[in-house]
Amino acid sequence: MKKKHFLYTLANFSTFMVLAAIVAAPLYFASKFTQVAGVKSQSTYLIISQAEKFPGMKFSQDGTTYSLNLPNSAEAYLAVLILNNPTNQSRTYQIESSDGFFFGDNLDEKLKSISLPAGASVPVSVQSKDNSEVEFSVK
């Protein structure tokens, strides 16, 4: 009789451990996945390249400095890049460049600073005067 009682206790304990593992495993992996996905949500902005839509244009990044190799200098390229605000609050962004980078696609109103609401995007355009390689950074 004691052996049977011990086996019931062991079976109940084993069942409890299996059920606890079934509940805990998804929670454990979910916390690990959110840490990996958190890298993206911690950034204050995302730059999305549209350079492949312009033949001969190449986009590259070195840290927080971005550069474009333009096929023809002294031309305007509208909406070459898209700046996205992935955060859950409004942010103000500023382009720092010696060349003609600006927010939007209006050549008459070249914005160097813009305030974006959470989750919003804005095109980034360039009007280069004489350089075939132009660099900028976003603050």
Describe this structure in words.
This protein has 2 domains: 1-42; 46-138, Immunoglobulin-like. Helix content is 29%, strand content 35%. The relative contact order is 0.18. With 139 residues, the protein is of the alpha+beta class. The strands form 2 sheets. The protein has a 5-stranded antiparallel sheet, with no helix packed on it. Strands 1-4-8-6 form a 4-stranded antiparallel sheet, with no helix packed on it. Residues 37-41 have low confidence and may be disordered. Strand 2 and strand 3 form a beta hairpin. The longest helix has 41 residues, at 2-42. The chain is rod-shaped. It is built from 1 helix and 9 strands.
Label this structure with key terms:
single chain; 139 residues; alpha+beta; 2 domains; five-stranded antiparallel beta sheet; 9 strands; rod-shaped
Shape by Cα distribution = rod-shaped
Mean pLDDT: 78
Biggest sheet overview: 5 strands, antiparallel
Number of beta strands: 9
Task: Return residue spans where pLDDT drops below 50 for at least 5 consecutive residues.
Answer: 37-41
Structural class: alpha+beta
State the CATH architecture of the largest domain. Sandwich
Q: For the largest sheet, list the strands in their spatial order.
A: 2-3-9-5-7
Structural domains: how many: 2
**CATH topology name of the largest domain:** Immunoglobulin-like
Q: How large a portion of the residues is in β-strands, by DSSP E?
A: 35-45%
What string, H for helix and E for strand, traces the elements in order?
Answer: HEEEEEEEEE
Rounded to an integer, what's the Rg over CA atoms?
26 Å
Q: How many angstroms does the end-to-end distance come to?
A: 76 Å
Considering DSSP H and I runs of 4 or more, what fraction of the residues is helical?
Answer: 25-40%
Count of helical stretches = 1
Q: What would CATH call the class of the largest domain? A: Mainly Beta
